[in-house]
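Exercise 3.2. Students should predict the tertiary structure of the chain below and write it as structure tokens, then compare their answer with the key that follows.

Predict this chain's 3D structure.
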Amino acid sequence: MVYLGFVVGIVAGNIAAHASHVDALRVYVATLVLIPVGLVGAKLLYVVSHWPLYRHNPRRIWDPSQGGAAQYGGLALVLPLSLPLLAALGLSFGAFWDVAAFTILLVMIFGRVGCLMNGCCAGRRSHSWISFYLPNRSGVWDRRIPTQCLEAGLGAALLICAIVLRRSLPFPGALFLLVAAGYAAGRLVLESTRESQAGVRRFTIHHAISLLTILSSLTAVIVRWPKVH
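Answer key:
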């Protein structure tokens, strides 16, 4: 599902690049270069946040049968490393990431469907009206909050907002910053609906990253927003 998300997301990014009058071929090249970097970053953050699982058996880190990835890790690694790449390709940093927001959102939507199918990122047990009979990553079925569906819905809502707002924002990069803040705000809430794991605190590293993302993104928007004289 992540692979399908990348395919659809790259196509969407190509359409967005043409619509924004950004060199679509250079965006395509930059995206292909950055995808494996993002996958490595996502894996590394997952390992850090689940270190007790890997501490005594580090070979599991790159075992493809183990799975495991954290989206924030991919973004944290890709953003700084994209600076020299985009400069070499002659692409505006802000304009590229406005386009890349569409790719990222589609990867997220498809990826959460894959999570639902495999039971990873499962919601906590619940008997509320919103709960469904779903498995976790260990294959244990129970009534759970459909966290994966809620996160996919968050991605879809942000995608619609991005399509509507993309022509009305005042500077390159504003769309990406607002999408990042919107995702982080939603993730901050939805993180607490996930099934807790033994030895993991209720306030996770993803809560902290969400708060930092909201603060830094909105600060950047406020600082960059054109002043009315």
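Discussion points: The longest strand covers residues 132-135. Residues 24-49 form the longest helix (26 residues).
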